[in-house]
Amino acid sequence: MTCPLLRSRVRSIDASTAAGREHPLEPTRAQVRTAVTVPLRFADGYATTARVMTFTGLADGREHLAIGLGDWEGALERSASGGPAPLVRPHSECLTGDVLGSERCDCGPQLREAVERIAEAGGILLYLRQEGRGIGLYAKLDAYALQDTGLDTYEANVALGRGEDERDYEPAAQMLHAVGAGRIRLLSNNPDKAAQLELLGIDVEERVPTGVHLAESNARYLLTKVEHTDHTLALPGVA
């Protein structure tokens, strides 16, 4: 399987090569610019407190966030001393799923799950401004219209003249390096996230799958992710 573009660095790279590369790429350095405490409360009543960090020097100039949850600072200290790596999820922004509760994807439930699991373990949620796998909100909605004619989620992006997945995780790696999270346990079903982060100098010690958030409206979407890009989702009836 070929990874999506690391557009600022390379054009095409095999995931197995990326994960085992002896000399990872070195992303430019970013720095924390502000850190503020934000109490969180979800619609189901779950509440926790987050430390939300903004950055200067991110490669794509977008306003990505690192959100420290639970005993995240302690988790970083323990990791630096050779203890367990902190739990980290890079979560791509999804206005329709995260905010509006759309069931065409599983993004909203994954975000809710990730906040609680990371708060319990101590770690960081990266909120990445990469709507629609990097093509933007309007283009994602255009892709939805094409999906309604029979195309799958990847075919629709290509039909719009875009890549199947245009996300570049260099800013994610920059933020992790900036807060001292060079070793992580990655909360993700997506093997490309692990491959790109490894290529960018992040030691992904373990891939931790999320739960399965299956609904009638997203069944084909989830199945396509499993079959087309090897997402680790234990869907009913799929070996």
Topology, please?
Blueprint: H1 15-19, E1 31-41, E2 47-56, E3 65-69, H2 72-80, E4 87-92, H3 95-99, H4 107-121, E5 123-128, H5 137-147, H6 153-159, H7 170-179, E6 183-187, H8 191-199, E7 203-208, H9 219-229
Parallel strand pairs: 4-5, 4-6, 6-7
Antiparallel strand pairs: 1-2, 2-3, 3-5
Helix pairs in contact: 5-6
Core attributes:
seven-stranded mixed sheet; 9 helices; 239 residues; alpha/beta; disordered N terminus
Word description of this protein:
This protein has 239 residues and is α/β, with parallel strands linked by helices. Helices cover 34% and strands 21% of the residues. Mean pLDDT is 88; it is low at 1-22. Strand 6, helix 8 and strand 7 form a beta-alpha-beta unit. The radius of gyration is 17 Å and the shape is globular.
Q: Span between N and C termini?
A: 19 Å
The Rg value, from CA coordinates, equals 17 Å
The strands making up the biggest β-sheet line up spatially as 1-2-3-5-4-6-7
- Work out the helicity level: 25-40%
Number of helices: 9
The coarse overall form would be: globular
Output mean pLDDT.
88
Number of strands: 7
- Structural class of the helix and strand makeup? alpha/beta
Largest sheet: 7 strands, mixed
Instruction: Provide the β-strand percentage band.
Output: 15-25%
Write the element-wise H/E pattern from the N-terminal end onward.
HEEEHEHHEHHHEHEH
The low-pLDDT segments are 1-22
Task: Give a quick rundown of the structure.
The chain has helices at 15-19, 72-80, 95-99, 107-121, 137-147, 153-159, 170-179, 191-199, 219-229, and strands at residues 31-41, 47-56, 65-69, 87-92, 123-128, 183-187, 203-208. It is of the alpha/beta class.
